[in-house]
Each structure stands twice: as structure tokens, then as C-alpha cells.
User: Which sequence fits this backbone?
């Protein structure tokens, strides 16, 4: 599923291409992102909202494919394609986005250390990886980047929040910013379906340290990277660098 870096990449690209254009007679004012949701705002206050889910794509001026679900045509003749092979994604036009944004936690790239730490302390018995993926706790992080963030911070994905020292909490917070910003720099991660708004694969897959690297050597200590299930989701980690106790 596209996470914050992928959706932010698309947002930045579309903002350059479609702001000021007209769609169905309405002028586009801005392109925003909240968590993993993309919002195209019109001057009349309404918004066209997308969630890409597992396989959604938003391609500007692309060619229709067999799994193109919708073509949005702008007044100047350009177009935006919504592709979705597995049909889990959605779009809708809303009068405002309050209900869509309701209940989301602070943005992962914006939350300050004190807020992050205080919010963590409210969940002492939670395991750190599932908590980082909880959009009500912090918005935008999913399976890929929770693995990479925890590896960078040297924190085991099964660690309970109450066992984390202040130094480790700070390392996790710093790693969130570092990993997500670098992933945006390389236009996100493509495993299979993700494409940016220009139809290109993201380049960050080449920089992943542990995600989908089971059986390979840890780039930091050369131990073998392991994979385990946590709450039905895969977690990749180095058992030597990221100790449980």
C-alpha cells in the first residue's frame, strides 16, 4: 500500500501540474495530503479525495490501461487517470474533508518530539511496530517504513512502549523524519504497483535495509535479517542490531 512518501510524491508532482486547471467547471486551488489520503481542493470549498489502498495509481496524462477505473478530464484537454488493479482504492467528492481527516493522528513528518513522546506514554503496553502503523496514533506510516524506521533506530518491532528508554524514543522520532524524507527524495518505494504521477517507479526500494530482505545480511552488522508476523503483518528486522531485551 502506498504510504506517506508515495502519496506525498504524487501530491508534489500533481501540485505542479494541475493547480489552476478546471475540472468539471471548478478551478483547482491546491493539492493536499493527510496521512495516506490525497485531496484536490477546489476554489468553491469542495474537494476530490483519493485513497489508493493497495494498488491505486494516479497518472497525469497517462494512457488508459485495462484496470483504469476513471479518467478525469481537465478543461485544457489534459487528464488524470485513476488506475486500480485490485479495486480497493476509492475516490469521492466532498463538501469538506473534516470527516475524512477526523480521528487521524499527527502527521509523521510534522510531529515534534514532546508530542510524540507524550503520545507514546499513553500506550505503555503496545508493541512499537503496530503502534507506528496505527493512523490514529501517527499518520502516514505503514508496513514498509515502520520496518525501516525501527531498524534505523535499533529498536526491535516487538518492544513494548514501556520498555523504551528516552534515548530510544528519541532515536525512533528522529528515524521517522530521516527515513520518510529520504524516501520522498527517491519518489517512494515500488514493490509491484506503485507509480508516481508521471508513471515512473519509485527508487527507494534500492535503499531499503530490512524490508523484504529476509535471509540477507544486515548492512550494519552482517547478521541474517529475520521476518516474523505481528498482528497479521510481516515485520523484518535484524536480531543482532534490534534486540528484544
Assistant:
Amino acid at each position: 500500500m502506498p504510504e506517506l512518501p508515495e502519496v506525498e510524491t504524487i501530491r508534489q508532482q500533481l501540485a505542479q501540474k494541475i493547480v489552476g486547471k478546471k475540472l468539471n467547471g471548478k478551478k483547482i486551488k491546491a493539492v493536499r495530503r493527510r496521512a495516506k489520503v490525497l485531496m484536490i481542493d477546489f476554489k468553491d470549498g469542495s474537494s476530490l479525495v483519493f485513497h489508493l489502498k493497495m494498488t491505486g495509481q494516479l497518472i497525469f496524462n497517462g494512457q488508459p490501461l485495462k484496470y483504469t477505473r476513471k479518467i478525469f478530464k481537465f478543461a485544457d484537454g489534459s487528464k488524470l487517470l485513476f488506475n486500480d488493479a485490485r479495486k480497493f482504492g476509492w475516490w469521492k467528492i466532498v463538501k469538506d474533508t473534516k470527516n475524512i481527516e477526523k480521528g487521524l493522528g499527527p502527521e509523521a513528518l510534522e510531529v515534534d518530539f514532546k508530542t510524540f513522546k507524550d503520545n507514546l506514554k499513553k500506550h505503555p503496553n503496545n508493541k512499537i511496530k503496530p503502534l507506528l502503523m496505527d493512523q490514529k496514533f501517527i499518520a502516514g506510516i505503514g508496513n514498509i517504513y515502520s520496518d525501516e524506521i525501527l531498524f534505523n533506530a535499533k529498536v526491535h518491532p516487538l518492544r513494548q512502549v514501556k520498555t523504551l528508554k528516552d534515548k530510544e524514543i528519541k532515536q525512533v522520532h528522529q528515524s521517522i523524519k530521516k527515513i520518510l524524507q529520504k524516501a520522498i527524495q527517491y519518489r517512494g518505494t515500488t514493490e509491484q504497483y506503485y507509480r508516481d504521477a508521471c508513471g515512473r517507479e519509485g527508487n527507494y526500494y534500492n535503499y531499503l535495509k530490512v524490508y523484504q530482505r529476509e535471509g540477507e545480511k544486515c548492512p550494519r552488522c552482517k547478521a541474517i535479517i529475520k521476518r516474523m508476523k505481528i498482528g497479521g503483518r510481516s515485520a523484518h528486522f535484524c536480531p543482532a542490531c534490534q534486540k528484544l531485551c
The radius of gyration is 19 Å. Residues 4-101 form a domain with the N-terminal domain of MutM-like DNA repair proteins fold (CATH 3.20.190.10). The mean pLDDT is 97. The longest strand covers residues 26-34.
